[in-house]
Amino acid sequence: xxxxxxxxxxxxxxxxxxxxxxxxxxxxxxxxxxxxxxxxxxxxxxxxxxxxxxxxxxxxxxxxxxxxxxxxxxxxxxxxxxxxxxxxxxxxxxxxxxxxxxxxxxxxxxxxxxxxxxxxxxxxxxxxxxxxxxxxxxxxxxxxxxxxxxxxxxxxxxxxxxxxxxxxxxxxxxxxxxxxxxxxxxxxxxxxxxxxxxxxxxxxxxxxxx
Length: 210
Description:
This protein is an alpha/beta fold. The protein is built from 7 helices and 10 strands. The protein has helices spanning about 15-20, 40-50, 65-75, 90-95, 110-120, 165-175, 195-210; strands at about 5-10, 25-30, 55-60, 80-85, 100-105, 125-130, 155, 175-180, 185, 190. Strands 1-2-3-4-5-6-7-8 form an 8-stranded parallel barrel, surrounded by 4 helices. The protein has a two-stranded antiparallel sheet with strand order 9-10. The protein starts with a strand and ends with a helix. About 40% of the residues are buried. The mean pLDDT is about 95.
């Protein structure tokens, strides 16, 4: 039986962290990118991370950051995993002696295969929808047929997921994990407890019937 992990990303409030943990999230994403409506300050992030129990991965999301900024975040917040969601080089991603995943915005054939090779030292590859102006959080999906069967790294599926389509996504793509933000919100940066729960129920339903 396949188990698909779940990461809820872009959490900004204590009650959202508590709700995500209560419904069984495997990972929580904190956004350190000021242009995002889901961005958190260092003090916010520290307080949110303190609520997250053992065996739930605290992930810090960065977009084209300065190395000093990442170091400052790591000094202040107990992150388990780094997520690079911009145009970062493999060298930057590897510079912090921390496990990391790389996100790519998919728009053409062969792009994912190339990323598997270029970021081969990552703990996983996250595939998201392309947008020329935004680095994730678009609320749109992409053509899943561009995802290859041969996957040298764990594949994390993002982009336009919600309780309405996550079961279909898991059945079609067979990802290692799914990552959702906008699809479980009442408004940008504010999660909806019912949507969090419904999303997890759909993941568990399709995994149990696999």
